[in-house]
Amino acid sequence: MSRRITESFAKAKREGRGAFVAYLTIGYPTLEASERAADEIIAGGADILELGVPFSDPFADGGVIRAAAYEALKRGVTLDEVIALAKRLRAKHPETGLVLFSYYNLVFSKGLAAFADAVADVGIDAVLAVDLPLEEREELLAVLRPRDVGYVPLIAPNTPLERVKASEEGLEGTFLYIITVKGTTGARTELPPDLTDRLDAIRSVARLPVAAGFGISTRAQADVVSRHADGFVVGSALVKCLSEGRSPCLN
Q1: Domains of the chain
Q2: Which one is catalytic: 35, 40, 47, 50?
Q3: pLDDT tens track for 12-45
Q4: Which of 35, 47, 61, 168 is catalytic?
Q5: What is this structure's pTM?
Q6: Each residue of 191-243: pLDDT tens digit?
Q7: Which of 232, 217, 251, 175 shows the shortest CA–CA distance to 21?
Q8: Contact, 2 vs 212, CB < 8 A?
Q9: Please, what is the Cα angle at 43 between 128 and 4, to 5 degrees?
Q10: Is residue 95 annotated as a catalytic residue, yes or no?
Q11: Quick check: is 50 catalytic?
């Protein structure tokens, strides 16, 4: 599998920090603006960028990302345009890990083989399908693996450790995305008090790097999470900056 994600976590570890995984809703506020924001975030230190594909029913997302997705869809942004933007980003940022963040209906509708060919051709390192359960992911993995594209599993707050271990079976060159809070995405002023114990427990059984997301909105929160995980994910806070006409940033 792609070396870029693996090296991103290894580099962060050598530098004594957590890997910064950033999320953007591509096409919000425009395709051009989201591309500029991606360039800024990478220049600002993001190790891995999640490219969010706008979807009409983003049930896992909170108000900020949901609103951004709807605006992008109103402008007609498609999966193919997100993939085309990924190609431009790869040319400019050859060492940055790129993850396509989507709902499975969009992937399936394109055709699994055609989708896998497209993401591999533009240099996407891994795919995250929000609503694809462990028991049903093999048909997607079957087309991604031969093309050297990884898969990022989501781990819910109540996922048993045995299922965490099952979620990483057969995966290489990727990471576990640990959901920090129950509910949808969105910046929060406080993270759950038992989160650090949960992350410690997952790291004790996980083979892949562990990155925690949903709710992280400040550098202080990211620092706390990074002491118990290999990386942190920030999304809503960055998209909110764009909605306010500011450059995406982590306070």
Answers
A1: 3-243 (3.20.20.70)
A2: 50
A3: 999 999 999 999 999 999 999 999 999 999 999 9
A4: 61
A5: 0.94
A6: 778 899 999 999 999 999 999 998 788 899 999 999 999 999 999 999 999 99
A7: 232
A8: no
A9: 45
A10: no
A11: yes
